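Try this one yourself first.
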């Protein structure tokens, strides 16, 4: 009988803890996200979508910018999943590499700009809570995570573009045979 009582208390306790976590989000991170999303949308309006589109097109001409600045800008301004629409500024053979870079930036951008990918925020906040409990601040880890993310997306973008071009070339050769 004690086992059933303990099981029932544990079961409802799980939901009580979930409620406490939810209240923490409502009073903590959710207002921050709303403010960040509002600020980014205001920045888009102030800068003008046309200017941002022109800048995006300039970024696509350089392979380093194409797989660093461009996906970061897409994630920052349009957030996940709308960031992938920036692929419209690219040549067809560059689109898979852009997607690979942008999707690989979903985690690293969250530490500095949580509005960019709120779905990943819960994962990041779990890690952040552990870091804070150890007595460390989040700034240095967020910056390092972002920098490493930028390096990784460049490598992934360049490699994916190379692989895509090889596959397209092979497909063209097979079609001509």
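Now uncover the answer:
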């Amino acid at each position: 009988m004690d086992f059933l009582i303990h099981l029932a208390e544990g079961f409802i306790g799980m939901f009580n803890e979930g409620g406490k976590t939810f209240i923490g989000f409502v009073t903590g991170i959710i207002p921050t996200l709303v403010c960040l999303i509002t600020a980014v949308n205001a920045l888009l309006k102030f800068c003008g979508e046309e200017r941002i589109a022109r800048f995006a097109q300039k970024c696509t001409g350089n392979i380093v910018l194409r797989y660093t600045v461009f996906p970061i800008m897409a994630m920052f301004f349009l957030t996940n999943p709308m960031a992938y629409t920036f692929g419209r500024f690219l040549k067809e053979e560059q689109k898979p590499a852009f997607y690979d870079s942008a999707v690989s930036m979903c985690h690293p951008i969250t530490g500095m700009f949580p509005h960019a990918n709120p779905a990943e925020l819960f994962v990041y906040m779990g890690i952040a809570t552990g870091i804070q409990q150890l007595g460390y601040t989040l700034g240095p880890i967020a910056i390092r995570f972002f920098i490493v993310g930028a390096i990784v997306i460049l490598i992934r973008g360049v490699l994916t573009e190379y692989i895509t071009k090889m596959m397209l070339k092979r497909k063209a050769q097979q079609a001509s045979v």
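Discussion: Residues 48-176 form one domain. DSSP finds eight helices and no strands in the chain.
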